[in-house]
Amino acid sequence: MKWQDGRRGGNLEDKRGMSGGQKLTLGGVAGVIVLLIGLFMGGDPQQLLQQLQEQTQQGGEANGEAYQSTPKEDNLIAFADVVLTSTDDVWTAIFEEQGQVYQKPTLTVYNGSTETAGCGMGRSAYGPFYCPGDQKIYLDLSFSDELSQRYGAKGEFALAYVIAHEVGHHIQQLVGTLAETNARRSKLNERAANKLSVMTELQADFYAGVWAHHVQRVSNIELTYEDIRDGMTAAAAVGDDRLQEQAQGQVNPESFTHGTSQQRVFWFKKGYETGDFSLGDTFSDRSLQ
């Protein structure tokens, strides 16, 4: 994947060294005691927590503590920025073709844990995720190593696929899909809700494929067949069936929330081969119902 000549300038927010979990740790036991006392005295929990975190952050800065980035992380930051910017360009063009204005998401890079607006505390153990509340994608750069070492999804395009997938959820947020599916899931039993979740995730895979189809047309990123193969390998690596087989030696289809490896590859490939935004209606696919 040739990306070094790609344009940078996406909405990238670097919160490494400022994660919510780290801030709270700086406060230590004394900070927790202060928080509990404030709660017993009738204080606002959110306001007290915010004050505690601000104080511990200021204390860390006063002591000269600053996050030290590595050359590897700097390269990943540049890569993520180029990929994010290219998704901005692709989806801006697609939305313009439909007479709409694309609202760009923010990519927040963090380590350990971080606060979100409406999605609770984000943690690196969760993997990359999109939060509709603040329209941000959250990514711990260590996930790049996890992709190759734990999931066997090697190559730079594997991480590009992951970012494009999360941008796919942002597309769903903009067009109202996420709000609709979340409302529907709250009224369904667990099995039906899981099926709806699978459809939602597979559509995001499709949108990632649509981005891959158009990216060379609107940016200086160059892809090869091997890159697309890496993307499909990444999609297969995070299939529910494969993950469950690795974790517990058996699979339970009724508990799937993201789709099988075969399904994820199929929808990513369909998006890549067609590049047609209108063909990603996973919710009408009878095989998923």
Automatic annotation (TrEMBL):
One protein family per Pfam: Zn_peptidase
Record localization: Membrane
Topology term for the membrane: Single-pass membrane protein
Bilayer-spanning residue ranges: 24-43
Keyword line: Membrane, Transmembrane, Transmembrane helix
Tree of life domain: Bacteria
Chief location of this protein within or outside the cell: membrane
Name of the featured protein: Zinc metallopeptidase
Species per Swiss-Prot/TrEMBL record: Sphingobacterium oryzagri
